[in-house]
Amino acid sequence: QVRLIESGGGLVQAGASLRLSCVASGLTYSQYRMAWFRQAPGKERQFVGSITWSGSTNYADSVKGRFTISRDNAKNTVYLQMNNLRPEDTALYSCAYGDYGRGYAYWGQGTQVTVSS
Q1: Residue 8: which residues within 8 A CB-CB, separation 6 or more?
Q2: In a structure prediction context, what are the per-residue pLDDT tens digits for the chain, which is 117 residues long?
Q3: What sign does the dihedral 60-93-24-100 (CA atoms) show?
Q4: Three-state SS for 42?
Q5: CB 21 within 8 A of CB 7
Q6: Three-class secondary structure of residue 111 per DSSP
Q7: DSSP run (H or E) holding 53
Q8: Is 117 exposed, middle or buried (0-12, 13-18, 19+ CB in 10 A)?
Q9: How far apart are CA 18 and CA 9, in angstroms?
Q10: Are 17 and 115 in contact (CB under 8 A)?
Q11: Within 13 Å of residue 44, how many CA atoms lie on the same side as its CB?
Q12: What are phi and psi of 75, to 5 degrees?
């Protein structure tokens, strides 16, 4: 059974940094993507960035240059380093996992990030 557990969210001021973690277990795909999404109240879920089994990364334009996705295979953990946070980054951040080339089949519960101005 795949489980994704996020942590690291919090309340910070604009300009601060946070690092989110997503610990995964029960992973089954040999070629996969893991991604971060976010959803603010009253808004649609938004793609933030992803990393593949080969280490390739992809980011939404709104976070390029500020956010970085990395992974530690030994710890089965994917990270989202968020720098220079802005109030518009406020959202529930969730990680997702899926077979490469297909949709994301598994989702975590999310961790809240709130950025004050």
Answers
A1: 18, 19, 20, 21, 111
A2: 999 999 999 999 999 999 999 999 998 888 999 999 999 999 999 999 999 999 999 999 999 999 999 999 899 999 999 999 999 999 999 999 999 988 999 999 999 999 999
A3: negative
A4: coil
A5: yes
A6: strand
A7: none
A8: exposed
A9: 7
A10: no
A11: 2
A12: -100, 0
Residues 87, 68 contacting (CB under 8 angstroms)? no
The token pair that represents 7 in the structure block: 């942590």
Q: 15: how many CB neighbours lie within 10 A of its CB?
A: 11
Contacts of 65 (CB under 8 A, 6+ apart): none
Structure-token pair, residue 44: 């649609």
Using alpha carbons, list the distances in angstroms from residue 35 to 20, 56, 74, 117: 12, 11, 18, 27
DSSP letter, residue 63: T
Per 3-state DSSP, what percentage of the chain is helix, strand, and coil (rounded to 5)? 5, 55, 40
